[in-house]
Amino acid sequence: MTRNSKFLSISSLLGFIFLYAPILSLIIYSFNKSKLVTVWGGWSIKWYVELFSNQQIIDAALVSLKVAFITATLAVVLGVLAGYVLSRMGKFPGKLIVSGWVSAPLIMPEVITGLSLLLLFVSLENLIGWPAGRGITTIIIAHTTFCMAYVAVIVQSRLSQMDDSLEEAAMDLGAKPHSLFFLVTLPIISPAIISGWLLAFTMSLDDLVIASFVSGPGNSTLPMVIFSKIRLGVSPEVNALATIMILIVAIGVVAAMWQMRKKENTL
Amino acid sequence: MTQETTMPLWKQDGAKPFIQIKNVTKKFGEFTAVDNVSLDIYENELFCLLGGSGSGKSTLLRILAGFEELTTGQVLIDGVDMANIEPWNRPINMMFQSYALFPHMSVAKNIAFGLKRDKVPKKEIEERVAEMLTMMQIEAFADRKPDQLSGGQRQRVALARSLIKRPKLLLLDEPLGALDKKLREETQFELVNIQDKLGVTFVVVTHDQEEAMTLATRIGVMGNGVITQVDEPRDVYEYPSSRFVAEFIGSINLFEGRIYEDEVEHVKIKSKEADCNFYVNHGISCAPNQKVTVAIRPEKMKVSRRKPEQEYNCLHGQIIDIAYMGNLSIFRIKLKSGIIVRVTLPNLVRENRNPLTWDDFVYLSWDYDSSVVLTS
């Protein structure tokens, strides 16, 4: 082993510790028997048991999963359309502005996105009476706007890697543009669509700021419940909940990356 | 075959062309990719568009397929104007340079794709695909995905897919470009056999002159968006119409000079670059005292140590380079004027007792009918 590779392995080890030590301690403390968060009292799964008997948390988890599922699906439909237009329309006037619009939600501070959507929903309610009050619908709309941007970017990059002659070959063999989209383009970009869906799902599940702005009473998402619980003091229950969420998000991200890898191999 | 003795269609007066390209121009912004091209291609031809990159040959092919709209001009196929006919409605199929096989479909599904679009009954599709798989000798790979195939196998699948709809016209974009040399040679002959068997008109785009020579019934040489010469392979090689064609096809030695004796049945040409005068045994139609180029192919020259008994077409120089290629050797000979002439000689015997070698002085001579006089 050379000195250089020793340096590399030590620095990567330090990096990993920096990134994952807090998460690891959280996971370990979720199995703590003691009621005091900072005192270790031996192993136990009682906080998990308690967690699943807490109706407030289960309700919030169901809201979050429902929102994430619908958001991811809507974001994929809109994101695929946007990505397809941006990579296949060729040059059209204002293309730069449109592609800027699509990716703007990626860099917009969440506080601003949340606030502006709240203002939009309130004024819409005053003008046309829809959406009546704030709740799951408004959270879904808000999440879709920023998740769609991620899907559009992923789909667009996949389409730009795709050989143009594949679509031309389909046309040449008698496929009209709409059937060629479903028969050739969509299957080829499907790994990007799946990974976009998974990414949108995890991001919606994760979001606290925007959801806090646009949700109404009785429709708290899981991150909102966790946040409000922590304000009353950290309970070991929250550690257990956070561990479960880490697991779900990790599975989602790994699956998304695996899909992206797969796409590279088949191209 | 009873047709073997009849004249090819393009030599018959009044024969109806299958493809008529009339004054076609295609511009991309300011750039003119195809510049006022007119060309007739006849049924059952294997026509090669030969040119370097950026010559416009691929654009012309894509115009036929319907992927590019014309700036001006007209394309007729089998007498029908193609102006408003979309690619999916044209009686044409194309084999793409990248093969463009659908990566998510098996070989059999790739081949069946075109028939399914035409709503051919399922049973017929199966039969025709099976038949095509057998013809292309790829039955063993029917269930594989394209990324599990070798380059040569992919090429066959692409060809099978483009032939399955029995098109009247098949366009091939660099069909052998991605194959290695040995496979390319085999496939060349196979392509000719398939074309002959199915009676489909082929239009092939290639940058490889050897490929064009082997495949084509006729070659159209393209450069800068213009077709410079359309002729049978032998004529393109032996009677190039311009300097561009002469230099593009094979290698050739060029001497610039002026005609000093212009008769009906012969001309004599003087060149500062050569230490002899040139004699050509046919008349040239050109202005008196016009600048011309005398072109002579490397294999048409004779090499000798002793001065041959001829006044014209006899150069003297020194060997500066020899390249042994196995079947032949290439000599580079420097003349007194500094011009370097390239000569190829077949290696007829294994051991030459008195071989030509570096620094030898030799005479180069050729017959009166071996050279070509180019006026443009």
UniProtKB/TrEMBL annotation, chain A:
Gene3D superfamilies attached to this UniProt entry: MetI-like
Subcellular location: Cell membrane
Membrane topology reported for the UniProt record: Multi-pass membrane protein
Membrane spanning residue stretches: 7-31, 67-86, 98-124, 136-159, 180-200, 238-258
GO BP terms: transmembrane transport
The family this protein is said to belong to: Belongs to the binding-protein-dependent transport system permease family. CysTW subfamily.
Listed name of the protein: ABC-type transporter, integral membrane subunit
UniProtKB/TrEMBL annotation, chain B:
Gene3D superfamilies assigned to the protein according to its UniProt record, in alphabetical order: 2.40.50.100, P-loop containing nucleotide triphosphate hydrolases
Classification via InterPro entries: AAA+_ATPase, ABC_SmlMolc_Importer, ABC_transporter-like_ATP-bd, ABC_transporter-like_CS, Mo/tungstate-bd_C_term_dom, P-loop_NTPase, PotA-like, Transp-assoc_OB_typ2
Function: Part of the ABC transporter complex PotABCD involved in spermidine/putrescine import. Responsible for energy coupling to the transport system.
Subunit and interaction comment: The complex is composed of two ATP-binding proteins (PotA), two transmembrane proteins (PotB and PotC) and a solute-binding protein (PotD).
GO CC annotation terms, alphabetical: ATP-binding cassette (ABC) transporter complex
SMART domains: AAA
Lineage top rank: taxon: Bacteria
The entry's keywords: ATP-binding, Cell inner membrane, Cell membrane, Hydrolase, Membrane, Nucleotide-binding, Translocase, Transport
Family that this chain belongs to: Belongs to the ABC transporter superfamily. Spermidine/putrescine importer (TC 3.A.1.11.1) family.
Organism whose genome encodes this protein: Colwellia psychrerythraea (Vibrio psychroerythus)
This enzyme's EC code(s): 7.6.2.11
Gene Ontology process terms (BP): putrescine transport
Protein name listed in UniProt: Spermidine/putrescine import ATP-binding protein PotA
Recorded GO MF terms: ABC-type polyamine transporter activity; ATP binding; ATP hydrolysis activity
PROSITE patterns linked to this entry: ABC_TRANSPORTER_1, ABC_TRANSPORTER_2
Domain ABC transporter: 19-249
Reactions it catalyzes: ATP + H2O + polyamine-[polyamine-binding protein]Side 1 = ADP + phosphate + polyamineSide 2 + [polyamine-binding protein]Side 1
